[in-house]
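In full, the data.
>
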Amino acid sequence: MSDIFDPSFLRKDKDLQGLFLTLLKGGLHKQARDSVGMLAAHYVRQRTKDALASAKEPVLSDKNQQNIELLRKQGFAVIDPIFEKQDIISIESFVANLKVHFGSVGFDESGRKGEMHVSELPPNIRFAHYQSTDICNCPAIYKAVHNEQLISTAAKYLGAPPTISSVASWWSFPSTLPVGGMQMFHHDRGDFRSCNLFVYLTDVSEVTGPHSFVTGTHEFDVLYPLAMKRFGGNSDTFQKFWRWMEVHRKSDDDISLFFKDSEIKIFTGPKGTSFLEDTRGLHKATVPISGPRLAFEIVFTVWPKFEFDGLVGLGKQSSLPREHLEFKTDSQSISPLVRYATRLMYN
């Protein structure tokens, strides 16, 4: 029997990785990608069922059941805060002395690249990320990554035991650089099925870089009826819409061609605000105007992300031995499902 808790599980064959990336990054249209996602979820369920057979399936709270339905219907769900107030204070204290990375691959800063304390960053930087292996040493983040209700919610939504493919925290700053990258509407193609947790670690208003999501664009079976109702009477527009959907990045003006302002969810709220989102739908990080934003993210996937280990451009993600962490963990009480989901981050 394969060791499903080993980080290399489902990741060994480079040709398989190449095939997956080709299919994800443009080899299939949305309907086909979603269909492959369902098949991948079925495959992972079958591959893991023996090893997880003895695991007692946690009972999801009524609120989390409702969150799953909201995810399916609209592509996002605002959830109860993942972190308590004291957790956020401890995270703020933990990252205070950490260096951040900027100018990494995928986050161009006009050719500038480096690693330094956030207070020393050069002017006009758009993004700065903490190293994943650094923040995974934070007790409050460790607790969030091992949140069994959260993992079980992701499992129910994805249709398979999830893999936490990345844990990230980054700053977004006001900048006069041209809008680009994740500050344009886009859809993620990191896996055929995915679900992200986002948490604001600073207060976020409409002028401090709120996250935005176009409702109902996450799943073909949700988007198709909307497109039929809106564009079905004009075959040229209907076909144009689906071709447009395959374009990876889109401007605000592009979005307004096909969607109403009322269909764009803008997430604002105090620090601690938490929401789940299927980032296969169109979304973006709005450019901050009056102040910086610090966000935290956990990415749940059916298949481990192949294009990178950890966050793009921040180096290889190495799983951290739980016994070497600077705080005590009760590793013996970790359920098989949680151990499986966290295997890329901790061992």
Q: What stands out?
A: The chain has one domain: 14-341.
